[in-house]
């Protein structure tokens, strides 16, 4: 039936995206089910490896851009929720950041948490010296609010960082996608604060 398949897919995805990293960091070793799924591709463990991996941390960094949805049948259509999409085709879903932070706090003895990457790529237009990137401003504001929601529920948040300060080379997209809050004219290297940067500056000053 579809339900068992969905649960199996969920377990596997959760294992490879979250537990395979978090469990070793907190002294639990690699999850047995993940190693079984990976077979010959499972990490090869040498004496002392796990103790080194579980060295206590001063902080834990979390990168979040969007959620992943598991489907037992046809692949989930990112358009089906009706939520906005970034220029990467990723759903704008700030609630997922809150859920992730709460889950990590619930399941692991986490140290202070930083959101070390969070941002959205959108199509930007430099017009008369301005970039009016309302979608990116909304994205950043909603995800900062999501961090605040987790903080209000006891998650030890220590900081939040936008990806990225400037438009730059993205490893999978080259210079085609722009994540920065500062617009870069790649031909001249001239840099222009986008509206999102001006909003972020005002936010930090309060």
Concise overview:
With 206 residues, the chain is mainly α. The protein has helices at 2-25, 32-38, 49-53, 95-107, 134-152, 195-205, and strands at 60-63, 113-117, 157-160, 182-184, 191-193.
Descriptive notes:
This protein is mainly alpha-helical and 206 residues long. It is 38% helix and 9% strand. It is built from 6 helices and 5 strands; from the N terminus they run αααβαβαβββα. It has helices spanning 2-25, 32-38, 49-53, 95-107, 134-152, 195-205, and strands spanning 60-63, 113-117, 157-160, 182-184, 191-193. The strands form 2 sheets. Strands 1-2-3 form a 3-stranded parallel sheet, with helices on one face. Strand 1 (60-63), helix 4 (95-107) and strand 2 form a beta-alpha-beta unit. Helix 4 (95-107) runs parallel beside helix 5 and helix 5 (134-152) packs parallel to helix 6. The longest helix is centred in the first third of the chain and has 24 residues, at 2-25. The mean pLDDT is 95.
Contiguous uncertain segments of 5+ residues: none
Could you spell the SSE succession in H and E letters? HHHEHEHEEEH
- What value does the Rg take, in angstroms? 20 Å
Query: Can you tell me the overall shape?
Result: globular
User: Mind summarizing the main beta sheet?
Assistant: 3 strands, parallel
Number of strands: 5
Q: Helical amount among residues, as a percent range?
A: 25-40%
Report strand %: 5-15%
Features:
single chain, 206 residues, mainly alpha, three-stranded parallel beta sheet, two-stranded antiparallel ribbon, 6 helices, 5 strands, 38% helix
List the helices and strands and how they pair.
Layout: H1 2-25, H2 32-38, H3 49-53, E1 60-63, H4 95-107, E2 113-117, H5 134-152, E3 157-160, E4 182-184, E5 191-193, H6 195-205
Parallel strand pairs: 1-2, 2-3
Antiparallel strand pairs: 4-5
């Amino acid at each position: 039936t579809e339900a068992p398949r969905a649960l199996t897919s969920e377990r596997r995805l959760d294992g490879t995206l979250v537990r395979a990293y978090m469990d070793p960091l907190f002294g639990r070793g690699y999850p047995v089910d993940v190693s079984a799924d990976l077979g010959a591709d499972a990490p090869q463990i040498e004496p002392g490896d796990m103790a080194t991996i579980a060295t206590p941390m001063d902080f834990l960094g979390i990168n979040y851009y969007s959620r992943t949805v598991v489907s037992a049948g046809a692949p989930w259509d990112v358009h089906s929720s009706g939520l906005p999409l970034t220029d990467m085709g990723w759903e704008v879903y700030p609630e997922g950041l809150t859920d992730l932070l709460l889950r990590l706090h619930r399941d692991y003895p986490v140290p202070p948490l930083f959101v070390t990457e969070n941002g959205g790529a959108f199509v930007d237009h430099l017009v008369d010296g301005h970039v009016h990137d309302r979608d990116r401003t909304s994205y950043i504001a909603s995800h900062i609010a999501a961090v605040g929601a987790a903080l209000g529920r006891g998650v030890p948040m220590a900081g939040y960082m936008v990806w990225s300060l400037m438009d730059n080379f993205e490893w999978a997209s080259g210079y085609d996608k722009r994540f920065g809050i500062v617009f870069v004219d790649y031909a001249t290297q001239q840099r222009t604060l986008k509206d999102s940067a001006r909003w972020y500056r005002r936010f930090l000053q309060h």
